[in-house]
TrEMBL record:
It comes from the Eukaryota. Pfam families: 2OG-FeII_Oxy, DIOX_N. GO terms for molecular function: dioxygenase activity; metal ion binding. It comes from Malus baccata. Residues 164-271 form the Fe2OG dioxygenase domain. Keywords: Iron, Metal-binding, Oxidoreductase. Belongs to the iron/ascorbate-dependent oxidoreductase family. InterPro entries: DIOX_N, IPNS-like_FE2OG_OXY, IPNS-like_sf, Oxoglu/Fe-dep_dioxygenase_dom. This is Fe2OG dioxygenase domain-containing protein.
Amino acid sequence: MTTEAVNLPIIDLSSSDSISSANSIRQACIEYGFFYLVNHGVEEELFAEVFDRSRNFFSLPLEDKLKLTRKHHRGYTPLFMENLDFASSSKGDSKESFYVGSLDDPTLINLNQWPPEDILPSWRPAMELYYRKVLSAGKRLISLIALALNLDEDFFEKVGALNKPRGLLRLLHYPGELGSTDEEIYGASAHSDYGMVTLLASNGVPGLQACFLDKSKQPRIWEDVLHIDGAFIVNIGDMMERWTNCLFRSTLHRVMPAGRERYSVAFFMDPNEDCVVECLKSCCSEESPARFPPVRSGDYLEERFRLTYAT
Ligand SMILES: O=C(O)CCC(=O)C(=O)O
Ligand SMILES: [Fe+2]
C-alpha cells in the first residue's frame, strides 16, 4: 500500500514578526499538531557531528552499551525493550536508544550516564552542546506557542514549566535488517509524545508517519512525514494537548522499518516536574468543558514511562 506524504507548514524561528509566526503555529497545531522548524540556531555541522557520534555509540559492542543501561530515564535501552502500543505488537519496538537528561537541574544532572572518555573521546561535550542549543530553540518556540494561545509570551515560565528545564535528549537507532519474523515489527509503534513539544532531527532515512485523524478513530490512515535537511520536525505532546483542552493536537505517529538504518535524535521538552498542567480557561467553554483534571507533570510522566516499559 502506498502512503501519501503530508505537506506540513514551515515555521521560521528567526522571523522578527512573532505575531505572524504565532498565527502560523496556531494553525499548524490545530490542524496537524506537527510542523517543520527552520532557522532555529542549530548548525548543520552540529547535526552532522551528533549523528556521527550517535553512530559511534550504537556501533559499540552490546556489552559496553549495556554497562550504561537506562536508570532514572538516562542511558541505554536495547532493541525490543520498549513497547509504545501493546495493541498492535506484542514484541517491543525494533530500536535502541540513549537518553540524556537535564544539564541544568543540580538535583538531576548527576543522573546522566556517559560513555567513557577513553572509548568515545569528546562525546559528552558534543551532546551537551547540542542539548543546550536545542533547549534554547525549544524555549523560544514555547514563547511563540504561548503567543499562539493568546497568552503572555512568558506564560509557561510563569506557571513553572521551564524554571528547571526537563529537556530529555534521546538518540535513536533503527537497524536496517530485521531478520525474519511472523509478526509485524515497528521501528516505533504508534504513540503520542508525553510532554509539551518534541524537536526531532533524522539522518534522512524515511519511516516516520503520522495519523491526523482523531486518536480514537479507526481505521487509522498514515501519512509519511518527510525529512527536510536542516529542519526540525516539531510535534505537540500530550501535556500541551491537556493545557489546550485538545485545541492543539498531540498526534499519533510511528516509525516503519525502511530496510535501511535510520538514526534520529529527539528532544522532548517536558514541563518541570512540579508544574501543574491544567486546561487553560481560554480553551474551555460551556460547550467545550475541561476534558482533563489538573495533573502534576512529574506524576504524569512517571506513569507514562511506567506503561511504556511494562513487560
Ligand atoms: O525516530 C523518529 O523519527 C521518531 C521517534 C519518536 O517518535 C519518539 O521517540 O517519540
Ligand atoms: Fe514520538
